Amino acid sequence: MEAAGLPGQEFPEGALYVVGVPIGNMGDITLRALWVLSRVDAVAAEDTRETRKLLERFGIEVRQLSVREHNERHGAEQIEALLREGKRVALVTDAGTPAISDPGARAVAVLREAGFRIIPIPGPSAVVTALSAAGLTGQGFTFIGFLPPQGRARREALETACARREPFVLYEAPHRITDLLKELGETLSPGRKVVVARELTKKFETVISLNAAELPQYAMTHEPRGEYVVIMDEEPPKEEGLSPADEAWLRDLAPELPASRLAAIAARRTGRPRQEIYSWLIRLRDDQTDSQ
Ligand code: SAM
User: Is residue 93 lining ligand 1, measured as CB closer than 6 Å?
Assistant: First the structure.
């Protein structure tokens, strides 16, 4: 704590501290999270029993209050009363970062609106953890989190998500992961790269990379166990190539003109890259030589 410079850091009163906690491996708690949790006047938790386990593990004794998804407004009122007295309150969820597919966002919005200082204490989140090991080729990503659990709303959300060309990330509950992987396999374009990250930071952590076409088979042969993040890489570029009509006139002219000159003319006429046409012409010449 000393080495991290924590005792000298600003720790204002009457502020809400939004604290990220581990998603499995307790070693991932940050020094700053421990420092804040052990000094605040109260911890507002999604599930106070879960948070008690975390606090006890690190020997922290602190008053708790409950901020569940369905009582977030009431929870925000309780926090607000404490902040008005100048108390410091930490907000945590069962795992990872509050407000990321978890309660917290509404309470933060209400308290920010009321003029209180909101201080983020960053920690793990399954989405960032999975992305860091996924090796995506695309730029940026969209975080979708959970799809609606069933019915038409789910089908429509899945189709809208799969139509995205940029990388996107889904969370899924263990009892729905098999269905999700099958649905993705049927909806994504077959060559799209998908990374399935399971039990991150835990004993049975696995991160595998597949093509969308392989997902249904994978779903049928792997029993769902634990928690999952599923990442879709960017949509692969379409193989456009030359049209059959362009190939036909190029075939006729190939014996008459040098490949480089013909490639330059054809690039102007077809809009395809000159290098692509040149390579096609060289393959054509090699095929014709082999067949003589
Ligand atoms: N707030 C959390 C965060 O910052 O990642 C997310 C909480 S959300 C209710 C729970 C979902 O997160 C799980 O269903 C799973 O999709 C994902 N998740 C959480 N922990 C995970 C882990 N260790 N490995 C893989 N996925 C995990």
Answer: yes
Q: Where residue 292 falls among pLDDT bands split at 50, 70, 90?
A: low
Rounded to two decimals, what is the model's pTM?
0.83
Residue range 240-269, pLDDT digits in tens = 778 888 999 999 999 999 999 999 999 888
* Cα of 54 from ligand 1 centre, angstroms: 17
Atom of ligand 1 nearest to the CA of 173: 14
Q: Whose CA is nearest to atom 16 of ligand 1?
A: 171
List the one residue out of 62, 3, 56 whose CA is nearest residue 36: 62
For residue 230 and ligand 1, the question of a CB distance below 6 A is answered with: no
244, two tokens: 């059959």
> Residue 181 and residue 196: Cα distance in Å, rounded?
9
Cα–Cα distance, 272 to 142 (Å, whole number):
31
